């Protein structure tokens, strides 16, 4: 893509952000990554007890947007409720390992040093290219004085979005987002069509349930390997699965959590992992499921739509040539594994499906 086109796409991206924010109106906010996060156990229980109460619980659980804007999905803002995400690195050369550093600046203008852990981590860091490819879920280390550091490789050129999902001590959980650039020639991938089955590393994950805008929907993701259901999933960060949903068009960030937890006496270790998800609008979403088995965390990816939306055929992601489907998407006829066998296992604490951090 030449420079002019790239700028054009960037402006289009901005328009999508504003359009998304304006268009959301009164519909409810995201799940899980917000105020509810700090009381996740209680929220998890209510998920099981009543799906309907869930929407109400979260109607005011947006990422604490200042000025009463409310109901803005997570990840769309670099600053909210007095907290600002500040990169200390803003350009990352594609294909080169970088020590990426950033801070969260608090309402007092100083870097935040105290966080309430959520899912066993003080801060969850998600990186994805603007075309929804190259998902990474990382856990940066504290380097002191409120500086976070994470080994980061952006495999290919493009515009990326990084999300920090955290709860400052004494404050609501929130997700802030910032742009990252990996300079170079960039050809966006088209968003893959919705499918019910994804494969990763020889595992097949099937998706049951449908997203519905503004309502809680029950999604069950079932994991099998070699045709056999996996019934010994391993707890990863306090759950059998972690699901991140990103909205196509503006990358609104929705962190969804499973119904039930390991050891609660009612939650099986697979093959099914049930989530209660609520998306704020009709549209296409990319779902990223992290699950752990055999000591390795893997990510299965799906496109799902809500409210009768279809995946756009034009737009910034379109190319004249049919784009190859994204890695983990396969229709059932194509069989499991396939090119996903190229996805390497990655260490537990930085489960990047492409193992780019090492
Ligand atoms: Cu995490």
Automatic annotation (TrEMBL):
Compositionally biased tracts (Basic and acidic residues): 323-333, 340-358
Comp. bias intervals (Polar residues): 38-48
Span list, region Disordered: 38-73, 304-358
Name of the featured protein: Secreted protein
């Amino acid at each position: 893509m030449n420079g002019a086109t790239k700028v054009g796409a960037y402006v289009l991206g901005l328009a999508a952000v504003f359009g998304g924010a304006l268009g959301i109106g009164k519909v409810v906010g995201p799940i899980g990554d917000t105020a509810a996060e700090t009381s996740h156990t209680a929220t998890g229980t209510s998920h099981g007890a009543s799906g309907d109460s869930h929407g109400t619980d979260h109607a005011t659980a947006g990422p604490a947007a200042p000025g009463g804007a409310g109901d803005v999905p997570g990840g769309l803002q670099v600053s909210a409720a007095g907290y600002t995400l500040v990169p200390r690195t803003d350009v990352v050369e594609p294909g080169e390992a970088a020590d990426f550093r950033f801070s969260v600046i608090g309402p007092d203008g100083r870097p935040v040093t105290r966080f309430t852990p959520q899912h066993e981590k003080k801060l969850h860091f998600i990186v994805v290219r603007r075309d929804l490819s190259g998902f990474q879920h990382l856990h940066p280390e504290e380097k002191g004085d409120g500086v976070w550091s994470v080994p980061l490789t952006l495999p290919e050129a493009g515009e990326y979005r990084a999300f920090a999902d955290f709860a400052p001590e004494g404050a609501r959980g929130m997700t802030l987002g910032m742009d990252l650039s990996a300079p170079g020639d960039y050809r966006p991938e088209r968003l893959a069509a919705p499918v019910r089955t994804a494969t990763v590393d020889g595992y097949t994950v099937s998706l049951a349930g449908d997203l519905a805008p503004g309502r809680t929907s029950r999604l069950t993701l079932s994991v099998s390997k070699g045709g056999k259901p996996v019934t010994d999933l391993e707890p990863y960060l306090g759950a059998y699965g972690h699901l991140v949903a990103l909205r196509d068009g503006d990358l609104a960030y929705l962190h969804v959590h499973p119904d039930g937890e390991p050891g609660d006496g009612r939650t099986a270790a697979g093959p099914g992992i049930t989530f209660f998800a609520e998306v704020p609008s009709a549209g296409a979403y990319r779902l990223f499921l992290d699950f752990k088995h055999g000591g390795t965390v893997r990510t299965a990816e799906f496109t799902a739509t809500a409210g009768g939306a279809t995946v756009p055929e034009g737009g910034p992601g379109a190319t004249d040539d049919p784009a190859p489907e994204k890695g983990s998407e396969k229709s059932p006829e194509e069989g499991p594994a396939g090119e996903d066998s190229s996805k390497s296992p990655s260490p537990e604490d930085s489960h990047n499906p492409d193992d780019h951090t090492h």
